[in-house]
Design brief:
The chain is of the alpha/beta class. It has 19 helices and 15 strands. The protein has two domains: about 210 residues, Rossmann fold (3-Layer(aba) Sandwich); about 140 residues, 3-Layer(aba) Sandwich (Rossmann fold), CATH 3.40.50.1100. The structure holds pyridoxal-5'-phosphate (PLP).
């Protein structure tokens, strides 16, 4: 299993290096040269396996011999020790709940597998490392909690101070120990820029910086698991084609789905559901890519991304090239992309209406990101009635109790908080009041903090 950079300006590397480095030196993202294949017989046999068995089958194709089988089983058991329920909502439409992990976000999947695998490699090599990560809301919590107390790893998380909820903040700031959090007076894209600059900065070499954003391939491949899992729970025939509706922000989730499809999963269409940051549906429509700067604030705040990093991987999959600044060097085969993906932009009004109608129709609460996905599958159903025989799975990517104000004002119901969240809200926060505006402020902070 070899990897290249989506900017094509660094050499070929193996799985372990891709995981530990996170990002290529040419600022591109690591991507598989070749995608492992699974035959339809095996996919069909997944119906009779449990999640751990399926996960072992899939992950071992990515890691080949870099981790011993018994160790891998332990890693998966430890990292993904929570339920992944799939419920039928109506007719052929299902919801897969990815919000049962410790931070109640689907990001727990990638973050927890990545953390355990990194620690495993570092332990074997007797090395240490510093994770630098930018968050638009949920990544920070998932990453901080996944790496918390890992002996060989320190974590620095940057978040847009005024754009995340108190609960999202507390998921990172109440940990302490090896977890440092920094509120930035800016947007997610500003946080991401600071992180990228630090990676390119030779003066910080000693920190052995790595990334746990969805730019790290180690975050991405574990996300293929719930595509295979949810598929295996609902199909009736071998080779049955289905639809997935994927709430999308930085497009890691969708990229994982596209990889699963290339591996052999029979997906008729992905419905990429975005909020008002509609650069991707616009691109599919016009063939011209224009990032949105600054990104727009929507209630599905973990998807407020004006230039998704993982577009580099999606372009790469379809023979194109786009760099980290959003400059297109080579257009991908856009007709092929259109065959695989339909993208809808859902504004805040429709998102709110969807939360209300979902509650009225099914007496259940859906949170803003899942609601964007649900609104999108509904548009698809209305637009393509000829596909009504296909089953669909929409991902609920976070737990409703993480967005109490919005949910209460729309439904009059206070969503019950899972225990993992309840406990955390009572803990004290470690808040750093440092003002960081430019890269040099951030660099000085790191130099001081780690006494370089
Ligand atoms: C991060 C996030 C998303 C977007 O996922 P991407 O992989 O960045 O597209 C959607 N919903 C929630 C709740 C998230 O935290």
């Amino acid at each position: 299993m070899k990897f290249h950079s989506t900017n094509y300006n660094s050499g070929e590397i193996d799985f372990k290096t891709a995981i530990l480095k996170g990002q290529a030196i040419d600022n591109g993202l690591y991507m598989l040269n070749e995608i492992p294949r699974i035959d339809q017989e095996t996919l069909y046999s997944f119906r009779n396996m449990n999640f751990i068995e399926i996960a072992l089958n899939i992950i071992s194709r990515f890691i080949e011999n870099s981790i011993k089988k018994a160790d891998l089983k332990k890693i998966i058991n430890e990292a993904l020790n929570f339920k992944i329920p799939i419920e039928k909502v109506e007719n052929n439409d299902y919801i897969c709940y990815l919000d049962n992990g410790p931070t109640c976000s689907f990001k727990d999947f990638g973050a927890r597998i990545l953390a355990t695998i990194m620690e495993y490699f570092l332990e074997n090599d007797n090395k240490n490392l510093t994770i630098l990560t930018a968050t638009s809301g949920d990544t920070g919590g998932a990453v901080a909690q996944a790496f918390y107390k890992m002996p060989r790893i320190k974590v620095v998380v940057l978040y847009p101070r005024n754009e995340i909820t108190t609960l999202q903040r507390k998921q990172m700031t109440t940990l302490g120990r090896n977890v440092i959090t920094l509120g930035i007076d800016g947007k997610f894209d500003d946080c991401q820029r600071l992180v990228k600059n630090a990676f390119a900065d030779g003066d910080l070499k000693q920190l052995n910086l790595s990334s746990a954003n969805s730019i790290n391939f180690g975050r991405l491949f574990p996300q293929t698991l719930y595509y295979f899992w949810s598929y295996s729970r609902i199909i009736e025939r071998k080779n049955e084609e289905i639809l997935f509706s994927v709430p999308s922000g930085n497009f890691g989730n969708l990229t994982a789905g596209l990889i699963a499809k290339r591996m052999g999963l029979p997906v008729k269409r992905f419905i990429s559901a975005v909020n008002e940051n509609d650069e991707f549906p616009q691109f599919l429509k016009t063939g011209i890519y224009k990032k949105i700067e600054p990104s727009k604030n929507c209630i599905s705040n973990a998807m407020n991304v004006g230039h998704p990093s993982n577009l580099a991987r999606i372009f790469d999959l379809y023979g194109g090239r786009i760099d980290e600044t959003g400059k297109v060097h080579h257009l991908p085969d856009i007709d092929e992309i259109r065959k695989d993906i339909i993208s809808y932009s859902i504004n805040d009004n429709s998102t709110r209406e969807t939360i209300i109608s979902f509650f009225n129709n099914y007496q259940k609460i859906i949170e803003p990101h899942g609601a964007v996905g649900w609104a999108a599958i509904n548009i698809f159903r209305k637009t393509y009635p000829e596909h009504n025989n296909l089953k669909s799975i929409t991902f609920e990517t976070a737990h409703p109790s993480k967005f109490p104000n919005e949910i209460i004002s729309l439904t009059n119901v206070t969503p019950e908080m899972p225990n993992s969240l309840k406990k955390m809200t009572k803990r004290k926060e470690f808040l750093d009041q440092k003002i960081i505006k430019e890269y040099k402020d951030f660099k000085n902070y790191l130099i001081e903090k780690f006494s370089l």
